[in-house]
Amino acid sequence: MDIDDPNASGPDDPDPNNPTINSASSSISTTSSAEYEDEAARSRRRRSIMVMISTIVTAAIEVASGLYDKRAYHTSILSGHAWVQELLNGHPDRIQCELGVSHHVFNLLLSNLRGMGYKDLCHVTLEEQLAVFVYTCVTGLSIRHMGERFQRANNTIAKYTFNHILLQL
């Protein structure tokens, strides 16, 4: 055996002509290839699951942001109380035009309500409550429109002003 011969095989080198060694090495590479493909498939599944989870979380955050990032709806400079005060302190014909009653009748209704025990509510004066009631009767507008006119929540218009006055009369 010549050391410089490239075709010569040493005692530790596998015999390329031995079928037992060739089939073993082939089965090892086949097993490695199958395991590699399984691992690649698992990796692709993990990536697609992560993409789905990321999409679901992003969508949930987008939906939830609308619930937590509140934006004021009634932003007019003239609040309902200020508008009523403007009517009461302005030209006498203006209150007649807007509320359908003269200044004298509005004050008479207000004093009668006070005599019956009505008072200002937590955030809504009796003047504004009466104005909401009378304005609704005159115009026939919906609660939503009344809320916009008086810069109040629809619930406030319905529960604390309109029903409060109407149910007591």
Can you tag this structure with a few keywords?
169 residues
- Average pLDDT confidence is 80
| N→C terminal distance | 123 Å
Instruction: Count the E strands.
Output: 0
Question: Cα-atom Rg, whole angstroms?
Answer: 42 Å
Task: Note the overall shape.
Answer: rod-shaped
Q: Fraction of residues in helices?
A: 55-70%
| Uncertain parts | none
Major sheet, described briefly? none
Could you explain how this protein is built, in words?
The relative contact order is 0.07. The model has no long low-confidence stretch (mean pLDDT 80). The protein is rod-shaped, with a radius of gyration of 42 Å. It has 7 helices and no strands. With 169 residues, the chain is an all-alpha fold. Helix content is 70%, strand content 0%. It has 2 domains: 1-71; 80-168, no CATH class. It has helices at residues 19-68, 80-89, 92-99, 103-115, 126-139, 143-150, 154-168.
Topology:
Blueprint: H1 19-68, H2 80-89, H3 92-99, H4 103-115, H5 126-139, H6 143-150, H7 154-168
Helix pairs in contact: 4-5, 5-7, 6-7
Outline of the structure:
With 169 residues, the chain is mainly alpha-helical.
